[in-house]
Design brief:
CATH architecture: 3-Layer(aba) Sandwich
Distance between the termini: 41 Å
Strand order of the largest sheet: 1-2-4-3
Shape: globular
Order of helices and strands: HHEHEHHEHEH
Number of domains: 1
Number of strands: 4
Oligomer: single chain
Number of helices: 7
CATH superfamily: NADH Oxidase
Largest sheet: 4 strands, antiparallel
CATH class: Alpha Beta
Length: 187
């Protein structure tokens, strides 16, 4: 039976241990295809993806991106695949809008695309861990990106090993939802 979207959302957890089993290129590209179809401000589609599946290249990238104070994310080098999610900055949608609105839309756009990617992976039985704690400057340097690009996040991907996830406590609906006004007595 096909899983519903709510099944995928409820079942998705960050995976930090992976089986030593490569992912099929077709599976990875299916996840990227899902991300590619995400909505974006003014349809700019700022996302770009770099897939690290070669063990030596992945190890070298992770040494740069996950070194020093970022070493607690170094576990991602043991994932069969690490995806660097990049943003190509656009003058109107990303720079001018940030000045007027105060919002960096490329972060929202790339976040939506990344969520599409991890939910498709969940549907395929692939575990993921979304990484925001990494050295973006060194990651950008490793990739030799032009100034108009940013490395926004990393996603580790692989088949989950035993003990790969831990339980998480979700906030209760009554603690996060209000209608028509913000209750003053909550936070």
């Amino acid at each position: 039976m096909a899983k519903t979207l709510m099944d995928l959302v409820a079942g998705r957890k960050s995976v930090r241990k992976y089986l030593d089993k490569p992912l099929k290129k077709k599976e990875v590209e299916s996840c990227i295809e899902s991300a590619r179809r995400a909505p974006s401000a003014h349809n700019i589609q700022p996302w770009r993806f770099v897939v690290f599946d070669d063990p030596e290249t992945k190890k070298a990238f992770c040494a740069q991106a996950c070194g020093g104070i970022y070493r607690n994310t170094r576990f991602i080098e043991n994932a069969p695949v690490v995806v660097a999610i990049l943003a190509k900055l656009d003058l109107a949608a990303n720079r001018i809008a940030r000045l007027v609105q105060g919002t960096q839309y490329y972060l929202l756009d790339v976040g939506i695309a990344g969520e599409h990617l991890v939910l498709r992976a969940q549907e395929l039985g692939i575990g993921t861990c979304w990484i925001g704690w990494f050295n973006a400057r060194r990651a950008k340097k490793f990739l030799r990106l032009p100034r108009s690009y940013r490395v926004v996040s990393l996603v580790a991907m692989g088949y989950p090993a035993e003990g790969a996830t831990r339980e998480k406590a979700d906030l209760r609906m009554k603690d996060i939802l209000s209608y028509n006004r913000w209750p003053a007595k909550r936070d």
